[in-house]
Amino acid sequence: MKKYILPTLTVLFLLVGFLIGNAVSNKANAQRFYIQNGKIFSASGKIDQLLQLMDRSYVDPLNIDSISDGVMQQIVEKLDPHSAYIPKKDLEMVNSELSASFSGIGVQFTIQNDTVNIVAVISGGPSEGAGLLVGDKIVEVDDSVFVGTKTTNEKVMHTLRGEKGSQVRLGVVRAGTNEILHYTITRGDIPVVSVDAKFIIHKDGHKIGFVRANKFGENTYDEFISALAMLKSQGAEGYIIDLRENSGGFMEQAIRMANEFLHNGDLIVYSEGRAYSKFEANANGIGRFQQVPLVVLIDDFSASASEIFAGAMQDNDRATIVGRRSFGKGLVQQQIPFADGSAVRLTVARYYTPSGRCIQKPYTLGNQADYEKDIFERFERGEFYSEDSIRQDTTVYYTKAGRIVHGGGGIMPDVFVGRDTSLNTPYFNQCVNRALTYQYAYDYTSRHRRELEQITDWQKLEQHLIAANWLPEFVQYAESKGVTPNPAQLAVSRPLLTRLVNAYIVRNILGDDGFFPLFERDDEITVKAVDVMMQKFNGEL
What we know:
Elements (H helix, E strand, L loop, with lengths): L1 H28 L3 E4 L2 E4 L3 H12 L6 H13 L7 E3 L1 H9 L4 E4 L2 E6 L2 E7 L4 H5 L6 E5 L2 E2 L7 H8 L6 E7 L7 E6 L1 E4 L3 E9 L2 E8 L6 H14 L4 E5 L8 H9 L7 E7 L2 E7 L11 E5 L6 H11 L4 E4 L7 E7 L5 E10 L15 H5 L1 H8 L15 E2 L5 E2 L9 E2 L9 H8 L2 H17 L5 H11 L2 H10 L6 H24 L1 H10 L2 H14 L4
Helix pairs in contact: 7-8, 8-9, 13-16, 14-16, 16-17
């Protein structure tokens, strides 16, 4: 890993030097604003001159910091779609998405009927120690009412998170009680989990390890390698790595993960930019899973570090890529802080897969609107359903074994799996789009929690739910929410609707360890991945 550390330290020292020099320069220039012959002069740029003039001379008092933030955002928006200015008030929240932990009370929640409902209490966290339970409804925070239409996910996270050691007083309503219960909770470190699924799939006497990573954060590699080791101890003969809807994160984590599967000297990724020295990452030959059969799952929302990993596996002919064309983000950002606590994430380089392709999809500087429409346009063209509808760059690249691959718009899977809409009906779509499947599952769990919690195996819990025959009750529930019953459409969508609601109920009781094995069992991409793995076991791939 030393070859990865040295370039990082070099960049860090250069960055520190730049920041120190910039701070000294700014301090000196602060006193060099003046007007002569009716013109503004300043050692700083024209934007700084205008802001200083407004702050000094405008008729009314101004919040210059707020105006500066707006100006900074507009400037950075003139660049590529992935460069971003992050105001101070948002920086902690943005950074926490990829950090190893954040400070909070340790619950997962959903908002139902304008009320915060606790759907999970993190084991060992502050809320568990204080006595909060799954199913509790938070109605007060620090003795103030905390319900209503203005209760948003962002507001809840901003309120419940806070400095480690600080306290928050919650008022909760609990099933079976007629009073508001009050708890004072001391905030603590809450781990951010990247690997949210790891289980064994049994198929024709074989054991296949399934690992799903939702991001590439600070601890993703450690979580990932622990998951592989656990599944190996359970007899896994091959692995399916699920990177669907994984929007990326730290490049270094993807490099370390790829290193586990590649042979000594195999190129993983390289990157370079105008002021960014070329950096290459090669496998060091000590990976513990260099020989095992491997399948990687991607989709339209797999991006950045996910594409680095998938590209390294594809270009080295190490894994079979299954799913749909990935997002297409081949740019590298560097986060640079400002003295006021804000930061800019500036694109400093492009990265390239081992075959030499940059998978960044086309963009126009300053035109984020069209860039963001790309996914919708893919859908409109039908490429979510048909491989023939996919448009790719015609430039040819070659994998290690000489297979042709393309760049300029994401990673194209080796095995394409289109979306299966045969069970979708207008009735089902209305229920899903209005989140009624999720809401009903939560309501059903709340009413039956005592009996459901007696079952600790997801397969037995699913059989219990099938026997309970909750579907007629769901139809009545959906009708009460404005969805008119349609028996013919319900008959078509019944398998899909049943699977979805059962999976949500299982998650409410057993968490992700129960949800993902049930949900993935009938998923079309996972089913195809298992078929591909069986071909590998049989020597057909």
